[in-house]
Amino acid sequence: MSTKPAVNGAHKAAIRQENEEQILAAAERVFADFGFKGATTARIAEIANVPKANVHYYFSTKEALYRRIMEDVCDHWLEAAMTFDNSADPAFILRGYIEAKMDLSRVRPYGSRLWAHEIIRGAKFSSEYISTTVKNWLDSRVEVIRGWIDEGKMDDVEPYTLMYMIFATTQHYADFGRQIEIFNNDKPLTDAQFAEAKENVVRIILKGVGLA
Amino acid sequence: MSTKPAVNGAHKAAIRQENEEQILAAAERVFADFGFKGATTARIAEIANVPKANVHYYFSTKEALYRRIMEDVCDHWLEAAMTFDNSADPAFILRGYIEAKMDLSRVRPYGSRLWAHEIIRGAKFSSEYISTTVKNWLDSRVEVIRGWIDEGKMDDVEPYTLMYMIFATTQHYADFGRQIEIFNNDKPLTDAQFAEAKENVVRIILKGVGLA
DNA sequence: ATTTATCTTGACCGTTTGGTCAGGTTAAAA
DNA sequence: TTTTAACCTGACCAAACGGTCAAGATAAAT
Question: Start and end of every HTH tetR-type domain (chains A, B) (predicted)?
């Protein structure tokens, strides 16, 4: 561990932060792979490289750990959502949002997979969050899209269907990453391949709604 | 049970078929909700309305049951895949394929979710199937799309990206069905809403690749 | 130097889990 | 009628699981 002399408990605080981060990262991965019920605290401890009792020392229960990670994933999702503002230029906004979501899938695939698990099993823990924070955001974005349609800036498409298409397509690169890898001759997409995919996704969707 | 007199073991055969179907349906649902590891044989038995020992009487292990259902889901997927043939008319073929996939999500959401679980956790059981049957089919369809592009029938898009977009968008209605339901004021999509979504998905994608 | 607070962790506990078994029931075959 | 085969299932087993605890180590405060 750190050899730097501690001042005012900084060392103990650093120990806590380092261990918590290690456990959170391990847990995100294990929950992403197996879902809440399928994940074991033994496996999380193993990946985090700490004794199982330590997981419980820092996070009282498996569920507490799970909720903590989901909050973090939601915060990250919100950052991408913020790129979708009320600008007058739909092509610019939609391009920015799709790219932000694609990038999120690229840099944090486990978070997306964890979310997918959560939704697939019925959104047991996140139902309220989805029906409030996420739904309010979605409904307000749908109003913005409707405004663009009314102003003749884009085709008259059903806005919810468009948003679901964007969610689905962008998260696919995280959730079904392994399948895409198998299709790519068992190799992860290179940065170039991913950039090309991103550009094609943006292009097809923008043209699909009359913006390119 | 059936009161019809049996002839040549038909009754016993009917018992087996009925019980197997019940267990398979229950298992598909439980595996869809919780994934392989998170699902329990006790839960499957409960949903199937049979004693747990009966599950093992008909399917030796949990894994045998899981593999059996996955084979079935793959067969079903293949049926939709068959709509994508070598026709000269890309708009017609893509529309047919997208619609078949959307319908599959509508009539068999658990199968799609089970598949999603399988892929999210790394395609542990299905890796070979994906890298052979599915990949060969995908690669051959990509060649067909390239042919259409070469003939100037559609835009020069990256065919794999297009196929992933179709997979993602159509399966979203099954895998993230709960989220969509929450966004729909906690009500499942009506048939009319689903038909509208399907039409919009087809329209956006076809236009997005220069086919509408 | 001593005390206090935090960290560490092997061992343990009660519950859950996948799977087995023995004995009984029912239907079909001989 | 008897025998055979298939179905049924409560009880049980060993292993896995989430979580706890006591005792020791370490760092910080007094």
Answer: 17-77
> Looking at the partner chain, which of A38, A178, A201 has a beta carbon nearest the beta carbon of B161?
A201
Task: Tell me how far apart the alpha carbons of residues B129 and A164 are, in angstroms, rounded to a whole number.
Answer: 28
Which residues from chain B sit within 8 angstroms of residue A169, using beta carbons? 164-165, 168-169
Longest distance between any two alpha carbons in chain B, whole Å: 65
pLDDT, one tens digit per residue, over B174-198 is 999 999 999 999 999 999 999 999 9
In a mutational test of the B interface, the residue from A112, A120, A181, A198 whose CB has the highest number of chain B CBs within 10 Å is A120
Superfamily of domain B66-208: Tetracycline Repressor, domain 2 (1.10.357.10)
d(C-alpha A5, C-alpha A27), whole Å? 30
Say how many C-beta atoms besides its own lie within 10 A of residue A193's C-beta. 16
Window 53-112 of chain B: CB closer than 7 A to strand C: 53, 56, 60-63
Q: Using CA atoms, how far apart are residues B71 and B66, in angstroms rounded to an integer?
A: 9
- Would you tell me which CATH number, out of the four given (1.10.260.40, 1.10.10.60, 3.40.30.10, 3.40.50.300), belongs to the domain A1-60? 1.10.10.60
CB < 8 Å to A196, chain B: 158, 161
Which of B120, B67, B130 lies closest to A39, judged by CA? B120
Q: Do B172 and A164 touch (CB under 8 A)?
A: yes
Residue B3 reports pLDDT greater than 90: no
Number of helices and strands (H, E) in chain A?
Answer: 11, 0
Q: What is the ipTM of this complex?
A: 0.91
pLDDT band at A88 (very low <50, low <70, confident <90, very high): confident
Please provide residue A86's backbone torsions phi and psi, each rounded to the nearest 5 degrees: -100, 25
CB pairs under 8 A between A and B: 174
Instruction: Give the domain ranges of chain B.
Output: 1-60, 66-208
Question: No. of H helices and E strands in chain B?
Answer: 11, 0
Nucleic acid strand D within 7 Å of A11 CB: yes
* CATH no. for A69-208: 1.10.357.10
| CB pair distance less than 8 Å for B172 and A176 | no
Which pLDDT tens digit goes with each residue over B95-112? 999 999 999 999 999 999
